[in-house]
Amino acid sequence: MSTIEKKAWWKEAVIYQIYPRSFMDSNGDGIGDLCGITSRLDYLAELGIDVIWLSPVYSSPNDDNGYDISDYRDIMKDFGKMEDFDHLLAEAHKHNIKIVMDLVVNHTSDEHAWFIESRKSKDNPYRDYYIWKEPRDGGAPNNWQSCFSGSAWEKDDATGMYYLHCFSKKQPDLNWENPAVRDEVFDMMNWWCEKGIDGFRMDVISMISKDPDYPDGPVKDGLYGDLMPYVCNGPHVHEYLQEMNRRVLSKYDLLTVGEAAGVTVDEAKKYANEEGTELNMVFHFEHTDAVSNKGSVVGKWTTRKPVLDDIRPIMNKWQTELEGKAWNSLYWDNHDQPRAVSRFGDDSTEEFRVLSAKMLATCLHMMKGTPYIYQGEEIGMTNTRFRSVEDCRDIEEINAYRQYVTDHHMVSSEEMLKCFETVARDNARTPMQWNSEKNAGFSTGTPWIPVNPNYTDINAEKALADPDSVFYYYQKLIRLRHETPVIVYGVFEPLLTDDHNVYAWRRVLGDQVLTVACNWSDQDVSCDLFENLSDGSEELISNYKSHKKGVLQPYEARVILSSLS
Ligand code: TEU
Ligand code: CA
User: Which ligand 1 atom is at minimum distance from the Cα of 334?
Assistant: First the structure.
């Protein structure tokens, strides 16, 4: 028997992530923008989501599409003006939709005023805002590789010292040990909260406290060392987040989610503890990294697709271990990941694309935690094609191609492009497919990144005209969540954990039981979970209209609500 835990609106909500650059272009310059988002609020209200997470919209030179911020209190020129933001926020609230901002404070842009000052001289008042080290043997201070290839250190001519950049060299890492940096960040956060925003998604927040020894990392591919063990979950990260909570978060009613690269369940219990001293929840990477961690072509790059046996032990661990101690966030994809249906489902035929997109949605939305939908997931958008590296826009892809293909000949161009088609971030960044008109209805100009050629078959207008579409299936899942407490608060109990094809579990709350089964294969498989249903059992949702006795059909998903007594 379960106990009813602390209720919270952010546990009951469904979040929809918008990558503004690729969502809707209102002025024909080929780049999505804030007015474009405002023009599509009716669509989001129809879907029924509660919250928008906006990927960064602040001033940025766009080395990493807005994750390199040059002014935290201004809007990126490509996206509009502050008054467009204020209008979006007000209109979203009128639609009963909250807005969560992306908070990127592990690093700034090298064009941020703080860094422009910091690099000027060793005694500049802003010097300690960033992480500067003397050269070692005339080279970089250690062997760390940046997440975007090459050394994580860049030599700066003005002083001959190196600064740390875990990402691109245009994203210098802030020095959180400096209290002045924390003051600046917390002031800025309070400023946005006073505007009336509804929360923060915190970019790589697990990386803000570094190992003070800066040791060399284990060398993986013969070029550089891994920095992750020394920058994730560092010695002061919980102290800094508790300070942030005291000085900002606790003063408002916010949704907070930390993007927590390298997080383990034990660390998550601290970041997302039920007492609420840090954040509401974190994103972990264990299911998205599952295949690369088992062996890849090079780095994260792989052509392998995960199978249920790769994913279930991870998801079940997070479900059972956080129970009662911390809250989960649930996602299959985002702007850094390939498309959910292409990676975890099956986009080989139209029938399987639709069935498996609905199956994955069922699977995710029936687990315990707050579900996140990434733009286009609700219509089953798929991965795209990379004819050559010219099709890439993402700095991660471009740099990895240069390092592994061009400079070191470790991988052929053909193989790298296959890896890109499997896991590249640009798969998620092709424009939202609104209709079958020019550029999928995204823009009247030339889109900044090519539209996925399948937009004439897969688009929102078609989905809205088809009662059996993936869109209406998501709409129903969201409505069910709002109506059915066991979907939000029920305790997760794994079932059939040895089955290679069927992912099944129960959720229990009081005397209510939800039984969930999802067939992850393209074959009929046997499953007797639904054979002896008690009287009064009710099918809440399924992606099939008729069922076969003792069998789950290809990608079939079923959810049954019954009572324990
Ligand atoms: O991502 C950080 C992160 O760890 C990634 O998912 C990263 O994209 C991946 O490891 C690369 O292989 C966040 C943002 O979501 C991402 O878009 C930014 O590029 C990155 O931080 C830097 O701000
Ligand atoms: Ca535009």
Answer: 15
How many CA within 13 A on the CB side of residue 121? Answer: 3
Domain extent for 36: 13-108+179-209+232-386+427-476
Which domain CATH number covers 548?
Answer: 2.60.40.1180
- Indicate which atom in ligand 1 lies nearest the CA of residue 106: 23
Mark whether 317 and 455 lie in a shared domain: yes
Q: What is the band of 532 on the pLDDT scale with cuts at 50, 70, 90?
A: confident
Predicted model pTM = 0.98
Report the atom number in ligand 1 closest to the C-alpha of 261.
4
Residue nearest to atom 2 of ligand 1 (CA): 204
Asked whether residue 325 is assigned to any structural domain, the reply reads yes
What total of structural domains would you count in the chain?
Answer: 2
Annotated catalytic residue within 156, 259, 347, 522:
259
Does residue 549 lie in a domain region? yes
Instruction: Report whether residue 396 contacts ligand 1, using a CB cutoff of 6 Å.
Output: yes
CA of 3 to the centre of ligand 1 (A): 37
Q: What digits encode the pLDDT tens for the residues 106-155?
A: 999 999 999 999 999 999 999 999 999 999 999 999 999 999 999 999 99
* Percent of the chain clearing pLDDT 90 (strictly above): 97
* Angle at 98 (CA atoms; ends 96, 103), nearest 5 degrees: 170
DSSP state letters, 83-135 = HHHHHHHHHHHHTT-EEEEEE--SB--TTSHHHHHHTT-TT-TTGGGB-EE--
